[in-house]
Amino acid sequence: MAGSDMRWMALALHLGRRGLGLTWPNPSVGCVLVKDDRVVGRGTTAPGGRPHAERVALKQAGAAANGATAYVSLEPCAHHGKTSPCAQALIDANVARVVYPIADPDDRVSGKGQDMLTAAGIDVTAGIMAQEAEIAHQGFLTRVRTGRPFLTLKLASSFDGRIATASGESQWITGPHARREVHAMRARHDAVLVGGGTARLDLPSLTVRGVGRWNTPVRVVVSAGLSLPKTGPLAENTAAAPLWLIHGPSASQEDRTFWGTKGADLIEVEEKPDGINLNHALSKLAERGLTRVFCEGGGTLAAGLLAEGCVDELVGFEAGLVLGADGYPSVAVTGVTDLGAAPRFELYDTRQVGPDLLSRWRRVK
């Protein structure tokens, strides 16, 4: 049974990953209904978070759900929200067994979904592929457990760790294959985040292009004084995707009014002597429902996020060129003087992308 359970749970996790970036503030869950070793229904949490994966799979299965086993990539919900609990939907469909990997840490659900199913006489198995599920749901889990989104920091640099020449030229250090991969990564996140320096230097649009994905991650820019260019993609194409601007109390009313009339959502957070309180900024993003944030720098923002312990994953694209010490570093001054105090990450993926090298690292807990 264990081998079969892992087979179908792997499919449920795969289905859930399809919805990354589309379902916030809800987790992207996958569900597979199996009867006589045959799939009778499958589902992924729908864009916007409703309906949940279990209901999608049950609708597809219809009467065939009777006596089936439901493989769900997260404990079925047990609370009444916009719809009744998924645990109750599974009970009403008369499934015989429910298998899930990890409990939902939301206090409204944690353990209660299993209790409902068990009380109804349904056989419940938990813990199958738990480690894989922790990774698959890391955005949702981080938001619930820590009060901030899961944050991926992406750095595209030369072999010697530079993101621009001494003159500020940065387009393009990496090749088109790497840039396309970045767009695919953006599409799997709820939001794309940059600092004010990057917004001023690169005039980015921060949209998803060229990967056939229709969703539009929220564009988030951190600038304490809202000193952002009033021409360029962010100001002139506000309809391309939601634009959230994180600023401090020092931002002028003139700049607030300008960006407000452009349709930007202004988020005031605490300032410290050296800039925005980034932990407070991320908590504000979590309050608004974001679970997965993809940060693309620049160096000052990257240094601040690392220093405050906010980075959960590093993604590096390394190009085969050397710019030298007079180029812009990928990470600004962090103040680290002791190696033991530096944030540590462990490598879990590396591969060639066109002429460039991609590496992915998870924070060491």
UniProtKB/TrEMBL annotation:
<keyword id="KW-0378">Hydrolase</keyword>
<keyword id="KW-0686">Riboflavin biosynthesis</keyword>
<dbReference type="InterPro" id="IPR016193">
    <property type="entry name" value="Cytidine_deaminase-like"/>
</dbReference>
<feature type="binding site">
    <location>
        <position position="170"/>
    </location>
    <ligand>
        <name>substrate</name>
    </ligand>
</feature>
<keyword id="KW-0479">Metal-binding</keyword>
<dbReference type="InterPro" id="IPR002734">
    <property type="entry name" value="RibDG_C"/>
</dbReference>
<protein>
    <recommendedName>
        <fullName>Riboflavin biosynthesis protein RibD</fullName>
        <ecNumber>3.5.4.26</ecNumber>
        <ecNumber>1.1.1.193</ecNumber>
    </recommendedName>
</protein>
<feature type="binding site">
    <location>
        <position position="198"/>
    </location>
    <ligand>
        <name>NADP(+)</name>
    </ligand>
</feature>
<feature type="binding site">
    <location>
        <position position="209"/>
    </location>
    <ligand>
        <name>substrate</name>
    </ligand>
</feature>
<feature type="binding site">
    <location>
        <position position="52"/>
    </location>
    <ligand>
        <name>Zn(2+)</name>
    </ligand>
</feature>
<keyword id="KW-0560">Oxidoreductase</keyword>
<feature type="binding site">
    <location>
        <position position="77"/>
    </location>
    <ligand>
        <name>Zn(2+)</name>
    </ligand>
</feature>
<comment type="pathway">
    <text>Cofactor biosynthesis; riboflavin biosynthesis; 5-amino-6-(D-ribitylamino)uracil from GTP: step 2/4.</text>
</comment>
<comment type="pathway">
    <text>Cofactor biosynthesis; riboflavin biosynthesis; 5-amino-6-(D-ribitylamino)uracil from GTP: step 3/4.</text>
</comment>
<comment type="similarity">
    <text>In the C-terminal section; belongs to the HTP reductase family.</text>
</comment>
<dbReference type="InterPro" id="IPR016192">
    <property type="entry name" value="APOBEC/CMP_deaminase_Zn-bd"/>
</dbReference>
<dbReference type="InterPro" id="IPR004794">
    <property type="entry name" value="Eubact_RibD"/>
</dbReference>
<feature type="binding site">
    <location>
        <position position="86"/>
    </location>
    <ligand>
        <name>Zn(2+)</name>
    </ligand>
</feature>
<dbReference type="InterPro" id="IPR050765">
    <property type="entry name" value="Riboflavin_Biosynth_HTPR"/>
</dbReference>
<dbReference type="GO" id="GO:0008703">
    <property type="term" value="F:5-amino-6-(5-phosphoribosylamino)uracil reductase activity"/>
</dbReference>
<feature type="binding site">
    <location>
        <position position="206"/>
    </location>
    <ligand>
        <name>substrate</name>
    </ligand>
</feature>
<keyword id="KW-0521">NADP</keyword>
<comment type="function">
    <text>Converts 2,5-diamino-6-(ribosylamino)-4(3h)-pyrimidinone 5'-phosphate into 5-amino-6-(ribosylamino)-2,4(1h,3h)-pyrimidinedione 5'-phosphate.</text>
</comment>
<dbReference type="GO" id="GO:0009231">
    <property type="term" value="P:riboflavin biosynthetic process"/>
</dbReference>
<comment type="similarity">
    <text>In the N-terminal section; belongs to the cytidine and deoxycytidylate deaminase family.</text>
</comment>
<feature type="binding site">
    <location>
        <position position="156"/>
    </location>
    <ligand>
        <name>NADP(+)</name>
    </ligand>
</feature>
<dbReference type="GO" id="GO:0008835">
    <property type="term" value="F:diaminohydroxyphosphoribosylaminopyrimidine deaminase activity"/>
</dbReference>
<dbReference type="GO" id="GO:0050661">
    <property type="term" value="F:NADP binding"/>
</dbReference>
<keyword id="KW-0862">Zinc</keyword>
<feature type="binding site">
    <location>
        <position position="172"/>
    </location>
    <ligand>
        <name>NADP(+)</name>
    </ligand>
</feature>
<feature type="domain" description="CMP/dCMP-type deaminase">
    <location>
        <begin position="3"/>
        <end position="124"/>
    </location>
</feature>
<keyword id="KW-0511">Multifunctional enzyme</keyword>
<feature type="binding site">
    <location>
        <position position="202"/>
    </location>
    <ligand>
        <name>NADP(+)</name>
    </ligand>
</feature>
<dbReference type="Pfam" id="PF01872">
    <property type="entry name" value="RibD_C"/>
</dbReference>
<dbReference type="InterPro" id="IPR002125">
    <property type="entry name" value="CMP_dCMP_dom"/>
</dbReference>
<feature type="active site" description="Proton donor">
    <location>
        <position position="54"/>
    </location>
</feature>
<feature type="binding site">
    <location>
        <position position="186"/>
    </location>
    <ligand>
        <name>substrate</name>
    </ligand>
</feature>
<dbReference type="GO" id="GO:0008270">
    <property type="term" value="F:zinc ion binding"/>
</dbReference>
<dbReference type="Pfam" id="PF00383">
    <property type="entry name" value="dCMP_cyt_deam_1"/>
</dbReference>
<feature type="binding site">
    <location>
        <begin position="298"/>
        <end position="304"/>
    </location>
    <ligand>
        <name>NADP(+)</name>
    </ligand>
</feature>
<dbReference type="InterPro" id="IPR024072">
    <property type="entry name" value="DHFR-like_dom_sf"/>
</dbReference>
<feature type="binding site">
    <location>
        <position position="296"/>
    </location>
    <ligand>
        <name>substrate</name>
    </ligand>
</feature>
